[in-house]
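[stage:ingest] chain + small molecule (nicotinamide-adenine-dinucleotide)
[stage:ingest] validated
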Amino acid sequence: MSGIVRDRVVVVTGAGRGIGREHALAFAREGAKVVVNDVGVALDGSGTSGGPAEQVVAEITASGGEAVANTDDVADWAGAERVVGTALETFGRLDVLVNNAGFLRDRMLVNLDEQEWDAVLRVHLKGHFAMLRHAGAHWRAEAKAGRTPDARIINTSSGAGLLGSVGQGNYSAAKAGIAGLTLVASAELARYGVTVNGIAPAARTRMTESAFADDMAAPDGGFDAMDPGNVSPLVVWLGSAESAHVTGRMFEVDGGRVCLMQSWRHGPEEDKGARWEPGELGPVVRKLVDAAPEPEPVYGA
Ligand SMILES: NC(=O)c1ccc[n+]([C@@H]2O[C@H](COP(=O)([O-])OP(=O)(O)OC[C@H]3O[C@@H](n4cnc5c(N)ncnc54)[C@H](O)[C@@H]3O)[C@@H](O)[C@H]2O)c1
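[stage:predict] done
[stage:export] tokens:
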């Protein structure tokens, strides 16, 4: 191991299972001190358990690393503040926030109810904001006290948020919101020494086990492209001092692949210099659509 994040203090949310667990283990292997946050809910967000966070801490400490568990709900305002407080009280500083926690309540839009909408928007979008708000306020105070941080936030979006995903209207909206939040946060927090990037991972976890079944794993024990551990090296690098020049970016990452996503851009346009009549716009819009590349298909369409 290169020790690329040696002695950096890292919070990983939702780190008791799946991709977050791999991030926590990978940061610890590279010398970081890790706050393993996980409220321990079921796949649909129900119930709570301290078990998953404690287990990952036990794994890290058993291999000689440093970690502490936190079981707060990241979408609870005071809970998110306590997660940041756990890093400061235990390790005396905070360098990296990896926002990863979340769950699914999938349904076609016409069947999606209000609770399913609210719960998924809350955990992903408010959960990301609450964590970055409390971490950001700490880093701003550090910068104002003359201790400009070299800090990182890595958010977790999804292909569902960037391209859309049938049956996941609530989740896609939350993950698209996270992509927008990443852009604003990267612009606002740069002055305090904080970079903010996002990832759209794909890996086999309980969240995706039906989509990426075990039989997609390499049969001969070779490279398993859907292993959640494949996502973490990029997240560790983004959390390191080396990534200072990269901010406001979104990476799709799975298997051995790292893809820089190119977001909404200004495309073909026509400016009349005056207000359009509705009846004039048919041929104008047709010309613009013809001149632009086809959008990428929505997942599952
Ligand atoms: N697995 C994939 O292919 C995939 C694809 C795109 C995006 N993602 C995203 O990656 C992240 C991790 O997903 P995963 O596949 O590892 O899922 P997972 O269910 O294995 O792990 C998520 C963890 O988050 C925890 N959690 C949920 N709500 C929480 C809360 N309010 N506070 C603290 N912890 C909470 C859960 O207890 C769980 O341990 C999620 O944001 C997910 O949307 C995953």
